[in-house]
């Protein structure tokens, strides 16, 4: 059987720096776990613009649709700020999301014990936290028509439309229920059914999908404003949260910060199934290209490494190996490995991007 295929798009700024550490880890799995991938590297964002005059070459787009998973670093940087909107680095990422039809955005919020003091919340509220927010990514108020700024009488009016079809709600709900079955079997759906018709439909459809197809999964409903309060009051009550594009944008950023640094946060975006039944998938750290620290060996590679762990779990059915990698990250942190973004008030000596890679590889070796 052919090896699973992986397209790596390091991108700009710290993207290539953090991806270099992921590549070492991928090689480790090939050598030590007999888990080899067919890896291709290509350009995206400013790097692709510099070479091709476009932030995503058509050939790269075509490969992204064919491979089992895409792993992306980050795009953008001051060098490209004055480019025309149509060729800005971000357009490369948006094109991938659009053409791969990545409607389900998975954002975990997980607290590593060694970093529990970093949280803005009390340690016992976040210690052991492990929740997943599933955000609908391709519809809702960011896309609905009509939209625009219009003249109305003698003033202007700005309009955006929250719009969801039943099938759009169904597919993201299924994605959340499938995920819940691999985790704590519990989903909380968040909307504003009290004041929005799209929320009424959201509540009705998520309940219908659960009753018909996932009776084994526990489903509850919560108004999104209450959800925001509950997330900072008692986040451990949740397992999987499913919500729309707008609420998901806000709630996932909020949940992410419960656990500390931007340099720690992975994400996955899943789309329609490929020929083999697996969803098209893009994995990427939540952070951007961090031009302020690029080229200095200061970037924390963990967000990108944990994104690869998500790929192992959700695209390659390697849940045990994903857990092995997550435990190695946890172990490296417990051993005191800290890039500058993870330095607490107690101080100490920070390590480089590559040294963090070394620490995680060492912990992987120790796991055998
Ligand atoms: P950013 O996420 O790049 O950086 C925000 C702050 O967090 C900076 O101080 C940075 O040094 C720090 N940081 C980020 N990742 C880190 C890591 N792995 N280790 C240690 N520190 C880290 O966001 P910013 O500064 O708003 O945007 C910079 C560029 O990145 C812009 O061109 C923006 O458009 C682009 N961007 C790209 C994204 C993507 O590719 N998905 C997402 C967000 C921004
Ligand atoms: Mg956001």
From TrEMBL:
<comment type="function">
    <text>Catalyzes the oxidation of 3-carboxy-2-hydroxy-4-methylpentanoate (3-isopropylmalate) to 3-carboxy-4-methyl-2-oxopentanoate. The product decarboxylates to 4-methyl-2 oxopentanoate.</text>
</comment>
<keyword id="KW-0560">Oxidoreductase</keyword>
<keyword id="KW-0963">Cytoplasm</keyword>
<keyword id="KW-0432">Leucine biosynthesis</keyword>
<feature type="site" description="Important for catalysis">
    <location>
        <position position="192"/>
    </location>
</feature>
<feature type="binding site">
    <location>
        <position position="107"/>
    </location>
    <ligand>
        <name>substrate</name>
    </ligand>
</feature>
<comment type="subunit">
    <text>Homodimer.</text>
</comment>
<comment type="pathway">
    <text>Amino-acid biosynthesis; L-leucine biosynthesis; L-leucine from 3-methyl-2-oxobutanoate: step 3/4.</text>
</comment>
<feature type="binding site">
    <location>
        <position position="225"/>
    </location>
    <ligand>
        <name>substrate</name>
    </ligand>
</feature>
<keyword id="KW-0479">Metal-binding</keyword>
<feature type="site" description="Important for catalysis">
    <location>
        <position position="142"/>
    </location>
</feature>
<feature type="domain" description="Isopropylmalate dehydrogenase-like">
    <location>
        <begin position="5"/>
        <end position="360"/>
    </location>
</feature>
<protein>
    <recommendedName>
        <fullName>3-isopropylmalate dehydrogenase</fullName>
        <ecNumber>1.1.1.85</ecNumber>
    </recommendedName>
</protein>
<dbReference type="GO" id="GO:0003862">
    <property type="term" value="F:3-isopropylmalate dehydrogenase activity"/>
</dbReference>
<feature type="binding site">
    <location>
        <position position="135"/>
    </location>
    <ligand>
        <name>substrate</name>
    </ligand>
</feature>
<dbReference type="InterPro" id="IPR019818">
    <property type="entry name" value="IsoCit/isopropylmalate_DH_CS"/>
</dbReference>
<feature type="binding site">
    <location>
        <begin position="77"/>
        <end position="90"/>
    </location>
    <ligand>
        <name>NAD(+)</name>
    </ligand>
</feature>
<dbReference type="InterPro" id="IPR004429">
    <property type="entry name" value="Isopropylmalate_DH"/>
</dbReference>
<feature type="binding site">
    <location>
        <position position="253"/>
    </location>
    <ligand>
        <name>Mg(2+)</name>
    </ligand>
</feature>
<dbReference type="InterPro" id="IPR024084">
    <property type="entry name" value="IsoPropMal-DH-like_dom"/>
</dbReference>
<keyword id="KW-0464">Manganese</keyword>
<comment type="similarity">
    <text>Belongs to the isocitrate and isopropylmalate dehydrogenases family. LeuB type 1 subfamily.</text>
</comment>
<keyword id="KW-0460">Magnesium</keyword>
<feature type="binding site">
    <location>
        <position position="225"/>
    </location>
    <ligand>
        <name>Mg(2+)</name>
    </ligand>
</feature>
<keyword id="KW-0100">Branched-chain amino acid biosynthesis</keyword>
<feature type="binding site">
    <location>
        <begin position="288"/>
        <end position="300"/>
    </location>
    <ligand>
        <name>NAD(+)</name>
    </ligand>
</feature>
<feature type="binding site">
    <location>
        <position position="97"/>
    </location>
    <ligand>
        <name>substrate</name>
    </ligand>
</feature>
<dbReference type="Pfam" id="PF00180">
    <property type="entry name" value="Iso_dh"/>
</dbReference>
<keyword id="KW-0520">NAD</keyword>
<feature type="binding site">
    <location>
        <position position="249"/>
    </location>
    <ligand>
        <name>Mg(2+)</name>
    </ligand>
</feature>
<keyword id="KW-0028">Amino-acid biosynthesis</keyword>
């Amino acid at each position: 059987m052919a090896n699973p295929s992986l397209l790596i798009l390091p991108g700009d700024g710290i993207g290539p720096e953090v991806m270099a550490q992921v590549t070492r880890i991928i090689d480790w799995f090939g050598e030590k776990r007999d888990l080899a991938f067919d890896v291709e590297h290509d350009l995206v964002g400013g790097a692709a613009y510099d070479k091709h005059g476009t932030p995503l070459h058509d050939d790269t787009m075509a490969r992204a649709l064919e491979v089992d998973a895409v792993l992306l670093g980050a795009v953008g940087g001051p060098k490209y700020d004055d480019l025309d909107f149509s060729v800005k680095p971000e357009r490369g990422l948006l094109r991938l999301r659009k053409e791969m039809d990545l409607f389900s955005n998975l954002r975990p919020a997980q607290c590593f014990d060694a970093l529990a003091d970093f949280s803005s919340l009390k340690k016992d509220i976040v210690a052991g936290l492990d929740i997943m927010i599933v955000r609908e990514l391709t519809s809702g108020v960011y896309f609905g028509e009509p939209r625009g700024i219009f003249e109305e009488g003698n003033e202007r009016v700005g309009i955006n439309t929250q719009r969801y079809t039943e099938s759009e709600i169904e597919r993201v709900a299924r994605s959340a229920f499938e995920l819940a079955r691999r985790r704590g079997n519990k989903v909380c759906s968040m909307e504003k059914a009290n004041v929005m018709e799209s929320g009424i439909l959201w509540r009705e459809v998520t309940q219908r999908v659960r009753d018909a197809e996932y009776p084994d999964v526990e489903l509850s409903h919560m108004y999104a404003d209450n959800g925001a309060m509950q997330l900072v009051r008692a986040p451990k009550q949740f397992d999987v949260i499913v919500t729309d594009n707008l609420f998901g944008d806000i709630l996932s950023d909020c949940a992410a910060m419960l656990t500390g640094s931007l340099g720690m946060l992975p994400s996955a975006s899943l789309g329609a199934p490929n020929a083999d039944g697996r969803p098209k998938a893009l994995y990427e750290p939540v952070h951007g290209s961090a031009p302020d620290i690029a080229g200095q060996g200061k970037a924390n590679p963990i967000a990108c490494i944990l994104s690869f762990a998500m790929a192992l779990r959700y695209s390659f059915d390697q849940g045990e190996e994903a857990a092995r990698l997550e435990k190695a990250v946890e172990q490296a942190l417990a051993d005191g490995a800290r890039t500058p973004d993870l330095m607490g008030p107690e101080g100490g000596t920070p390590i480089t991007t590559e040294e963090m890679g070394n620490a995680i590889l060492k912990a992987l070796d120790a796991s055998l």
